[in-house]
Write a structure and sequence with these properties.
Elements lengths: L10 H4 L5 H5 L10 H25 L6 H10 L5 H5 L2 H13 L10 E9 L8 E9 L6 E6 L12 H12 L12 E8 L6 E8 L1 H20 L9 H4 L9 H7 L1 H10 L7 H9 L1 H20 L7 E6 L3 E3 L3 H11 L9 H11 L7 E3 L3 E6 L16
Parallel strand pairs: 3-4
Antiparallel strand pairs: 1-2, 2-3, 4-5, 6-9, 7-8
The structure holds iron/sulfur cluster.
Length: 392
């Protein structure tokens, strides 16, 4: 078993759909992470690094300021130009200040552990996790787990399986463990209200009794996922959303009506679809789109692994074009295009403006590295488009 099969960060899935764990073993591993994921990883690392810097400065009675945060990201190789130019520096300070000062009374906590390793083998053998931060308050009666989320989709701390598991791990490092009658304890999501806005901190209190019954449930689901011959597969929005087994999951296909759709496609001109079935397909169009994406990823994974995938191959395609974001390019565009250059501009719009103004704007466009893309071996139909389109 790989350690990440059953982990806090995927508990939202295996606790709802224990059968996903075994099914995912049949899916080729991910070959590359998305741009969003890699940006999220960088932001996470920068938040942790700056919070540690802040913590060591406080230990020698220095209070880091926004200026220090600006210097920190200016010289940090993990930071992107957008982070350096935007308000990410403020978010770093807001996050670190939240950790180091009690938001209610402004006092420093007794202890703050940043990037804290947690052993959760009491829930499932080999389970591990890393909490972004654990705050031990002065009174020593309350523990707070803080999790930073960089994405723009709001994440709720309410009944958040990942953070409940971190809390269990943190409590087990205390002398009383889950036998403590102290608390309740806090779980907090730190997330910018919008990507470019200030950091918001949403907390819920969780009692020891709730944690104990949650732990029992988690243990039962983890054991079922690993030990049952055919553990239950139970589709739901929360479980399936990020599950990479959609392509081969019969329960998902039935749930989103994909079986109806495939049947209709097989019959081509002789489709006899009732209004109710057509409605079911339309109601599930997002999930069906997710299924198509999952099938593409599955086929790419197999071909990358050196396996055969019937009727498809990987073909090298030139990289996406995008507009270069730099002061020099913006300045030059302003000179050539006037105020039009100040509007958000993608490659398509820039090409149109180049034609209208009769100027060459190639200097403002860059092309990403070539990528291997999925393509049918024969019958390259018009409607099969890989994702090499221009950035809009
Ligand atoms: S797609 Fe949904 S139902 Fe199927 S294994 Fe994944 S989480 Fe479970």
């Amino acid at each position: 078993m790989s350690h990440s099969e059953i982990s806090p960060s995927n508990a939202h899935r295996w606790m709802r759909c224990p059968g996903s764990v075994k099914l995912l073993r049949k899916v080729p591993p991910e070959t590359e992470s998305s741009e969003d994921a890699s940006l999220g990883t960088r932001k996470h690392a920068l938040m942790a690094q700056f919070a540690m810097l802040f913590q060591s400065a406080l230990s020698i009675c220095l209070h880091p300021t926004d200026v220090v945060a600006a210097d920190f990201i200016k010289s940090n190789p993990l930071a992107t130009d957008e982070m350096r130019d935007g308000i990410f520096g403020n978010q770093l300070v807001e996050y670190a200040e939240y950790l180091m000062h009690n938001p209610n009374d402004g006092k420093e906590p007794a202890r703050v552990d940043i990037e804290s390793f947690l052993d959760l083998s009491a829930v499932s053998p080999g389970m591990r996790g890393t909490a972004d931060a654990i705050i031990y308050r002065h009174s020593d009666t309350t523990i707070e787990i803080v999790d930073y989320k960089s994405g723009s989709l709001p994440v709720t701390p309410h009944a958040n399986e990942q953070l409940m598991l971190y809390m269990i791990g943190a409590l087990q490092m205390t002398s009383d463990g889950l036998c403590s009658r102290k608390g309740g304890h806090l779980i907090t999501i730190a997330q910018p209200s919008v990507e470019t806005g200030p950091m918001s901190f949403r907390s819920v209190t969780v009692s020891i009794d709730t944690l104990r019954s949650f732990m029992f449930n988690a243990k039962t689901k983890a054991a079922a996922a690993l030990n049952f011959k055919n553990p239950l597969r139970q589709p739901s929005n929360e479980a399936c959303r990020w599950c990479r087994a959609k392509a081969i999951c019969r329960e998902y296909h039935g749930w989103v009506g994909a079986d109806v759709l495939i049947d209709a496609c097989d019959k081509q001109g002789n489709v006899k679809m009732s209004d109710q079935l057509a409605k079911r397909v339309l109601d599930n169009r997002k999930s069906i789109t997710a299924l198509i994406k999952s099938c593409q990823d599955y086929a790419v994974g197999k071909l990358n692994d050196g396996d055969n995938f019937p009727g498809y191959q990987l073909v090298e395609k030139s990289g996406r074009r995008s507009v270069i974001k730099s002061d020099a390019v913006t300045h030059e565009l302003m000179f050539l295009l006037g105020p039009d250059a100040l509007e958000p501009t993608g490659v398509g719009k820039l090409t149109r403006l180049a034609r209208e103004h009769n100027v060459n704007l190639d200097f403002a466009i860059t092309r990403g590295d070539p990528k291997m893309m999925l393509e049918p071996i024969e019958d390259v139909s018009e409607d099969f488009k890989t994702e090499t389109g221009e950035t809009k």
